[in-house]
Amino acid sequence: MSTDTLTPAAGADRIAEIRRDTNETKIRVRVNLDGSGKSALKTGIGFFDHMLDQIARHGMIDLEIEADGDLHIDGHHTVEDVGITLGMAVARAVGDKKGLTRYGHAYVPLDEALSRVVVDFSGRPGLAMDVKFTAGMIGALDTQLVFEFFQGFVNHALVSLHVDNLKGHNAHHQCETIFKAFGRAIRMAITPDPRSAGVIPSTKGCL
Fold first, then answer.
1. Closest to 16 in 3D by CA, of 89, 87, 81, 83
2. Of 36, 28, 35, 51, whose CA–CA distance to 150 is shortest?
């Protein structure tokens, strides 16, 4: 059983806050899509906080996340539910998508690692992820949960997302390039296009 609470944006500000409570997790996410990259993060998983900070910093999104999850079991519910709640918040903050660039992409290197992320605010959820992590754990984060985070995000942000780690031997570097590239791709996609102000970026007339 879950309860989802939406706090609508005021005026034209692209801000949203969502609280999502279940028997497994209690999550609060606040996003400002036109922020300066500030973050306040507390999920109980240190490396996961580090990755979420990459989204904020490189996406130029102000991001607050508080998660109280059943970490005595493992990190699965916490990581997945943060992805779900963040996706809901981004969808709410983006609004009707008029004037949106819509598509975003980024290649990001870190030493020997290189990742590519491509996103489309299409209104349709879809995830294609090709990442072969070289370690099962990075700090307290199970690398299998990176997929679960992005799956939760795309299902509720209603985006198509392609995540590919092209090179990398160090799992920390692999993961960090993915999250940095994700932040950069999101930043590009949500940036308003002054040439299409007030226009839905689709021949269908809706997204």
1. 89
2. 51
Structure-block tokens of residue 54: 């990459």
Note whether 74 and 175 are within 8 A (CB): no
Q: pTM of this prediction?
A: 0.94
pLDDT digits (tens, 9 = 90+) for 157-167: 999 999 999 99
- Measure CA of the first residue to CA of the last residue in the chain; give whole Å: 29
Q: For residue 96, give every residue at least 6 positions away whose Cβ sits within 8 Å of its Cβ, in sequence order, or none.
A: 200
Euclidean distance between CA atoms 190 and 50, whole angstroms: 22
Place of tokens 């995540």: 163
For tokens 């031997």, name the residue.
Answer: 169
Q: What is the pLDDT of residues 8-53, one digit of tens each?
A: 433 469 999 999 999 999 999 999 999 999 999 999 999 999 999 9
CA–CA distance, 146 with 139 (Å, rounded to integer): 13
